Amino acid sequence: MPPKKMPPKKVPQKKKKNVARARVVEPVVETENLPEKQSSEKDTVTFRRGYVYAGLTALAFAAGIFIGYMLWGYKPEPKPVIYDIETAGFPSLGPDDAPIVIVEFSDYECPFCVRWYVQTYRPLLAAYPGKIRLVFRNFPLSFHENAFASAEAALCAGDQDSYWEYHDALFDHYLALYQEDQERILDQSTYNQLARDLGLNVATFEKCMTSRKYQQFILDDIEYANNLPPDIIAGEAAVGGTPTFFVNGQRLGGAYPLEEFEKIIDAELAKPNWFRDLFGGTR
To answer: In the chain, fewer beta carbons within 10 Å around the N or the C end?
Structure first.
C-alpha cells in the first residue's frame, strides 16, 4: 500500500503587530480657517450680534416712550409773562429813575380800587421813599356810570398841575359821593366843586371837561389794556378788571395788600441794576 500522505502542517501565521502611525498635521497658513477656530469665532460673532440687537431694541423702546411722553404727556410749566407797559406821557408820581415802576390800571368808581387806595397806596409809597414811580392809566368799566367822566376830570386837573391832588380827592370823597346812592350820576357841578376846593381855575377846568379833551386819550388806554397778552399763569386777561398792577412788569390782578407788593419789590431791589435794566419789564 502506498504510504498515506500526511496533510501539510498548518503553520500559524504570525500576528501582525499594530504599529501606531504618527498623525501628520499639515501646516496651516490661515489659522482663522481652522474648523475649531472658525466655529469659535462664529459663535462669538453671533453672541455679540445678539447683544447689539438686544441693546438696539431696548434703546428703540426707550426712545418711543420718551417721544410719546414729549408729544402727549409732557406739559412744560408756563413761565409768567413779564409785561413791558408803556409809561411815557401818563400821569406819574415819584422819581423818573426809580428802580421800581408800578403801573396801575384803575377806575375811580371801583370799590376795590378805593380799598387799595385806602389800605395800600400811601403805606406803600412811605415804605420805599424815592424808590417807586407810580404810573396811573385809566380803565373805566362800562357799568360804572361816573368812571369815564371822573378820569377826564383828573386829567383836566392835571392841566393845572394838580392831577394827583384830584386823584386823591376822588377817592377820598368816594363814600360821600356814593354812600347814599350807589347809582348816583355825578354832574358837572360836583366835579367843579372838587376843583374849587383844590384852588383850580374852575372855568378853565370846566371848559376842558365839556370839550371832552381827554376822551380819546382814555379810549386809547382802554384799547391798549385790552390788547395786552393774557396772563397764562392766572388764565385771565392782563387787565380784566380793576385795579390791575404791573410791578416792574410783574402782574398783580386785584387790590392786593401791602405784603404782596413788598415781596415783589424786595426781590427786585435785591437784583443788580444791570439785571433789572436787561431783564425787567416796565421801565
So the answer is: N
275 band by pLDDT with thresholds 50, 70 and 90: low
Which residues, listed in sequence order, are joined to residue 262 by a DSSP beta bridge? none
- Judge whether 22 lies within some domain: no
The conformation of residue 143, written as its DSSP 8-state character, comes to T
For the entire predicted model, the pTM comes to 0.72
Cα gap 272→182, rounded to integer Å: 48
Same domain, 129 and 62: no
Pair 61, 189 in one domain: no
Which residues constitute the domain of residue 147?
92-279
- pLDDT tens-digit series, residues 129-178: 999 999 999 999 999 999 999 999 999 999 999 999 999 999 999 999 98
Residue 35, domain member (yes or no): no
AA letter at 196: R
Hunting for cell 497658513 — which residue is that? 29
Q: Which residues pair with 231 in a beta bridge?
A: 236
